[in-house]
Design a protein that fits this description.
By secondary structure, this protein is mainly alpha-helical. The chain has one domain (about 5-45). It has helices at about 5-15, 20-35, 40-45. The chain is elongated, with a radius of gyration of 14 Å. The termini are far apart.
């Protein structure tokens, strides 16, 4: 599957671009980690794949 086709299908299914979809997944996982663990915000951010704590 080409990159363009994947982008079009993901946008049609979710209504979001690929980068927005991945960010939403990371934020949902971060929410789960923040509520279930004793990690601080910076640690959770790095754990879910954000490179910058801001």
């Amino acid at each position: 599957m080409s990159r363009t086709t994947l982008h079009k299908k993901l946008t049609a299914l979710t209504g979001m671009s690929f980068s927005h979809y991945v960010r939403a997944l990371r934020l949902r996982q971060a929410q789960v980690l923040l509520t279930t663990t004793k990690l601080n915000v910076s640690q959770v951010g790095y754990a879910v794949g954000f490179n910058n704590p801001t």
